[in-house]
Amino acid sequence: MISGFICGPTIYEYKGWLFEYGPVMVWPLRKDWSLRLRAGRRFWEMIGEFERLPDNNKSECRVVGGCQSIMNTQLTCPRCGSHDIEKITMKDGRVLYVCQCFTCSHKWISKKEDK
Q: How open is the CA angle 73-85-2, to the nearest 5 degrees?
């Protein structure tokens, strides 16, 4: 199972400005999301105002980005990594998993029914 976080720049839109805002970089973007060449006085005044906003107001201005949790919830064969798994529930509640990969055919049993 794969789990972790994937992070990208956080993009906000506030008072008609589209901009990247993070701990390392704050910079205005064009409407096509490319970086502007310069950041002028009006942009920095708007950023000062944006920074004074409460966090919940800032989150309403967020367009995309930040850190997202990633977790592979799909069942994976521990031997070959295939996702083609047959799930067979036995009478005692345990589950038999059988990899349908033609090279592996690995089988394993869970302790109880997975929800």
A: 30
Q: What is the pTM of this model?
A: 0.55
pLDDT in tens, 48-102: 999 999 988 988 898 887 776 665 556 777 777 777 788 877 777 788 888 887 7
What are the C-alpha distances in Å from 40 to residues 11, 24, 36, 37, 110? Answer: 18, 18, 10, 10, 61
Give Cβ neighbours of residue 97 (< 8 Å, ≥ 6 apart). Answer: 75, 77, 85, 86, 87, 88, 107, 108, 109, 110
In one-letter notation, the amino acid at residue 30 is R
Integer Cα distance of 75 and 69 in angstroms? 18
3-state secondary structure of 13: strand
The 10 Å Cβ neighbour count of residue 12 is 22
Q: Distance between CA atoms of 7 and 39, rounded to whole angstroms? A: 24
pLDDT by residue (tens digit) across 100-110?
Answer: 877 777 777 77
